[in-house]
Design goal:
Blueprint: E1 5-13, E2 16-21, E3 25-30, H1 32-41, E4 46-51, H2 52-56, H3 63-72, E5 77-80, H4 86-93, E6 99-102, H5 111-120, E7 125-134, E8 137-142, E9 147-148, H6 153-163, E10 167-172, H7 184-191, E11 198-201, H8 207-216, E12 221-224, H9 234-242, H10 272-278
Parallel strand pairs: 1-4, 1-12, 4-5, 5-6, 6-7, 7-10, 10-11, 11-12
Antiparallel strand pairs: 1-2, 2-3, 7-8, 8-9
C-alpha cells in the first residue's frame, strides 16, 4: 500500500507568502523561498506553490520566483497560478517544476490540460478544483469572479480525469483558514468519482485532522497551508503523531518519536532532567 502524503500548500500573493481566509482575506508571512526551505528541512513530502494574484492580474507566472523556490525545494514541487498557455507550462518545467496545477484555465476548457498531459504525461498534471457549499449543494468556485459556477465538483473531477489529469487537488473555500477540519463530505464525493490520486486542502488545524481525513476518506494526500508556517518543526511534529496511525514517510533526525503531545496536538514539555541531558547532544545539520 502506498504511503499517505503530507503536503504543504504555499499561497503567494504579489510575491509574498500569505495566510488565506476563505479566499477573501490574507495576512503576510514571508518570502516563498524561505518558507519552502523550512518546509523541506522539516520533512514535508510535497509542496504546492500557488500564485493567487497571477491570474487575477492577468499576468504570466513569476518564473524568477519559481526558479528561486525550486532551488530550495528537494521534494516534488507543483506550481499553479497564471497558466494559460502551453508555452508557459514549458517555461515552468524548465524552471525546476515537477508538476503543473491548472485551475482557472480548466474551468471552461480542458484543451490546455489535455495538451500538457500528452506532452509531459498525466502524472505531471494536477487539476485544482475550488469548491464551495451553496444552497443547491457543492459547486465549483471561480476565484477570479469570486462566484460559484454551475459545475458539480465530483462531475468536474471525473471530466478532468478523462481529459488527462493525473491527480485532483480539491480545495474547500468554506474551510479555508477556518481550522475546523477537512470537509469530509466534499472529499468523499471527489474520491468516489475518480480513480486517480486525490489531494485535499482547506481547514486543517493539527495532526488529528490529518488522521481523521485519512481514516474516513480515500485521499492519497492531505495538504495544509497556514498552520505549517507558525511553529518550528511543525511538519515533523505533525507527522510523528500521524505515523502512530498511518504509514507515512518520517525521515528527519528530529522525529519526536519519544515525545508526547496534548489533546490539541501540542508538544508537551519534557522533564527538566531530560532537557538538561539534551544540552550535550550534538545534532548535525541534516540534508533531506
Amino acid at each position: 500500500m502506498l504511503k499517505k502524503r503530507i503536503v504543504a500548500t504555499v499561497v503567494v500573493k504579489e510575491g509574498i507568502v500569505v495566510q488565506s481566509f476563505h479566499f477573501n482575506r490574507y495576512l503576510p508571512i514571508g518570502k516563498p523561498e524561505i518558507a519552502i526551505e523550512f518546509l523541506n528541512l522539516w520533512g514535508i513530502d510535497e509542496i504546492i506553490l500557488i500564485d493567487i494574484s497571477a491570474t487575477v492580474n492577468e499576468r504570466e507566472p513569476d518564473y524568477s520566483m519559481v526558479k528561486l523556490a525550486s532551488k530550495k525545494c528537494h521534494v516534488p514541487l507543483t506550481v499553479g497560478g497564471g497558466i494559460l498557455t502551453f508555452d508557459q507550462i514549458q517555461k515552468l518545467m524548465h524552471s525546476g517544476v515537477d508538476k503543473i496545477s491548472l485551475n482557472q484555465s480548466a474551468l471552461y476548457s480542458f484543451d490546455l490540460l489535455t495538451q500538457a498531459a500528452l506532452n509531459y504525461g498525466n502524472q505531471c498534471i494536477v487539476l485544482s478544483i475550488d469548491a464551495i457549499n451553496t444552497p443547491n449543494g457543492y459547486r465549483v468556485y471561480d476565484y477570479k469572479k469570486k462566484a460559484a459556477t454551475h459545475l458539480l465538483p465530483a462531475e468536474f473531477a471525473k471530466r478532468g480525469q478523462d481529459a488527462g489529469a493525473g491527480e485532483i487537488l480539491i480545495n474547500s473555500v468554506d474551510r479555508d483558514g477556518s481550522y475546523t477540519g477537512f470537509d469530509l463530505e466534499l472529499i468523499n464525493s471527489i474520491c468516489g468519482s475518480v480513480t486517480i490520486p486525490v489531494i485535499c486542502g482547506g481547514g486543517a488545524k493539527n495532526a488529528m485532522d490529518f488522521i481523521k481525513v485519512f481514516s474516513e476518506t480515500k485521499v492519497s494526500a492531505a495538504s495544509a497551508a497556514n498552520f505549517f508556517h507558525f511553529t518550528e518543526h511543525s511538519v515533523n511534529q505533525c507527522k510523528s503523531i500521524i505515523k502512530k496511525e498511518f504509514d507515512i514517510r518520517l525521515e528527519t533526525n528530529a522525529n519526536y518519536a519519544e515525545s508526547s503531545f496534548d489533546e490539541f496536538s501540542r508538544l508537551n514539555k519534557k522533564e527538566d532532567s531530560i532537557l538538561e541531558e539534551m544540552l550535550f547532544f550534538k545534532i548535525e545539520k541534516e540534508i533531506i
